[in-house]
Specification:
The chain is built from 24 helices and no strands. By secondary structure, the protein is mainly alpha-helical. Helix 18 (307-318) crosses helix 19 (326-344). It holds the Pfam family Fanconi_C.
Length: 445
């Protein structure tokens, strides 16, 4: 407030502090009230001027110059967090003159973004989206801020992760393809830079789910085609992955997974996909839609499914490169474990000794991609089999104590709990077991 008083009292309208004080007293105002009314009137006047100019943009004679709009934005910089200034910030962010160049000061755009990220100001979604569309550094900073926030703080559930992501407004803003592609590229680089840690992968997958929700809420006239978001990918595969599991009857999941797997096999084995870059792009597209991968591992155990196609899908996710036929070896390992688990699936009385062979394949092998896939299968077996719940804590504790899979197992349990809560009913015993495991193992990660 004192800064604003200084700016206004030193402007061309005022001659001296003494005269100003006398003038204010004569009006019957305190100094604080006077400047409060003055700034409100000034904001109202500027907002009206900008909006009228926006609507009468073809009236060249009466149009506001780009330099004038730029000057107004510069004037706002030290006052960004002043609540009375919010209508002017919104109007400026939504203002587009006739110039092809950005007319708002970059200092202004950066200051607004900084204040918004630190929650010092509140803006309508449309103004925030416009800010990110017109100023790429602000969008990049907002995305990196979100990643840093999610990776650095302790979050106890995927509901909390989803809440933080949604609160950032990035999934909603990503309904615009230009924003989606930039955010996705930043996520991709973050995943590479962190060597694919599960926390970043989980953030990407939750963000993708929230983006799809926001896109579904768009009206038809505002909805962009899928190709605008994924312009360089195989469109039938994109359409298959974008369909959310809850959009299908559960009896159709296995068929849909086989359809996805068949398309992937054709793409990956295509001779034109020769570079690791092309392969990574295909893998990253599939990885973003992690719901289908988790359901694939569940369907292997719970439903009648063609195991080869679904195992290949999981093997590709955990072992995309296939150097020295590594994926083939992963498939063989997974097939052996799968066959063993299926013989035990209906047993109501199980001991850790019954699962010794499967556990040994996790704790005794060196290739991490094999270990991660088998850990995924075994964790699901413990959740969904007739007797698995009895030894789940003991078995998972043994695995996580002897390997580096603690965070991965906890992430899998969190994703499963989140999906059950938002995607439909599941057996109460399984939900109870999930909650117990999450509570017990949250202390280990």
């Amino acid at each position: 407030q004192s800064l604003l008083c200084h700016l206004l009292s030193s402007s061309k309208w005022e001659s001296s502090e003494a005269e100003t004080s006398t003038f204010i007293s004569a009006l019957g105002y305190t100094s604080e009230d006077y400047y409060c009314h003055l700034v409100k009137n000034m904001v109202f006047s500027l907002v009206t001027e900008l909006r009228e100019n926006q609507f009468n943009g073809l009236n060249i004679q009466g149009s506001i110059s780009a330099s004038h709009v730029n000057a107004v934005s510069i004037f706002c910089v030290p006052l960004i967090t002043l609540p009375d200034l919010t209508p002017l910030l919104e109007t400026l962010l939504l203002y587009h003159g006739g110039s092809s160049k950005e007319i708002l000061s970059s200092d202004f755009l950066e200051a607004v973004n900084e204040a918004f990220l630190k929650k010092k100001i509140s803006l309508p979604e449309s103004a925030v989206f416009s800010l990110w569309l017109r100023h790429l550094p602000s969008l990049e900073k907002a995305t990196l801020h979100l990643l840093d926030q999610l990776v650095s703080i302790q979050l106890n559930s995927l509901e909390e992760v989803a809440c933080v992501i949604k609160d950032s407004l990035l999934p909603q803003a990503a309904s615009h393809p230009a924003i989606f592609r930039i955010v996705n590229e930043i996520f991709k680089n973050a995943l590479i830079g962190t060597d694919g840690i599960s926390e970043v992968m989980t953030v990407i997958q939750v963000f993708t789910c929230l983006f799809l929700q926001a896109r579904q809420n768009e009206t038809k006239q505002h909805k962009f085609p899928l190709k605008a978001y994924f312009p360089y990918h195989h469109q039938p595969l994109v359409r298959g992955l974008v369909r959310r599991p809850f959009e299908f009857p559960t009896t159709y999941w296995s068929q849909h997974l086989k359809h996805i797997s068949d398309m992937l096999i054709a793409l990956v084995e295509d001779k034109n996909v020769s570079s690791l870059t092309d392969l990574f792009e295909i893998w990253f597209l599939v990885a973003c839609f992690g719901e289908w991968l988790d359901i694939a591992a569940e369907q292997l155990l719970k439903a009648a499914v063609e195991p080869d196609a679904v195992l290949w899908l999981l093997a590709f996710y955990y072992c995309p490169k296939n150097e020295n036929q590594q994926r083939t070896q992963t498939m063989a390992e997974a097939q052996a474990v799968y066959n063993h688990l299926m013989t035990l699936f209906s047993h109501t009385d199980l001991s850790l000794k019954d699962l010794e062979a499967a556990v040994h394949r996790i704790t005794g092998i060196e290739q991490c991609c094999n270990r991660h896939l088998i850990t995924h299968l075994l964790t699901n077996f413990l959740l969904f089999s007739s007797g698995g719940y009895k030894i789940a804590q003991e078995c998972i504790y043994h695995i996580t104590e002897t390997t580096d899979t603690s965070k991965e197992v906890y992430s899998l349990l969190s994703r499963t709990a989140y999906r059950f809560k938002h995607g439909g009913e599941e057996k109460q015993r399984t939900v109870k077991l999930l909650n117990e495991l999450l509570q017990k193992f949250s202390l280990k990660v």
